[in-house]
Amino acid sequence: MTTYIVYHIVSTVKIKQFDNLAAAKRSTTCMNRNARNTAPKNTFNYGVSKEDYAPYAYTDAEDYSKNVVYNKKVINLMTRKEIEIPSNTPACCDPSTETYWSM
Fold first, then answer.
1. Which residue, 17, 72, 86, 96, is most buried by CB atoms nearer than 10 A?
2. What is the pTM of this model?
3. Contact between 14 and 43 (Cβ < 8 Å)
């Protein structure tokens, strides 16, 4: 059984997970439409038309883990050493953020 994931394109954070492709497509369409309607007006001043603005996408789980999520290098705030973490790591689990060290 294939699982489909809706994710934020820039941050690669997983938003929702579906067992059905049609449900993933429908959810992505609704989320992108809502993002277009609620985006600040200056979002569309940088060469992106309102119709092309789509911050969310969907894919299957295998493609998500192989091609969407990547490792990024960050600097640990305490040790000043460079480490690699997945691109979809939230701030509370990222040692390069103040949030991680203040919890």
1. 96
2. 0.79
3. no
> Residue 11, Cβ neighbours under 10 Å: how many?
13
Task: Read off the tokens for 23.
Answer: 């449900």
CA 21 → CA 18, 28, 67, distances in Å? Answer: 7, 11, 18
CA angle 8, 10, 15 (to 5 degrees): 15
What is the rounded CA–CA span in Å between residue 82 and residue 96? 9
Across 62-77, average pLDDT: 92
pLDDT number for residue 14: 92
Which SS3 state, helix, strand or coil, does residue 29 take?
A: helix
Contact between 44 and 53 (Cβ < 8 Å): yes
Q: What is the mean pLDDT of the chain?
A: 90
Domain ranges of the chain: 4-68, 71-102
pLDDT at 90 over 90: no
Q: Could you give the CA distance from residue 36 to residue 15 in angstroms, rounded to a whole number?
A: 17
Pairing of β 4-8 and β 14-18: antiparallel
User: What does the chain come to in residues?
Assistant: 103
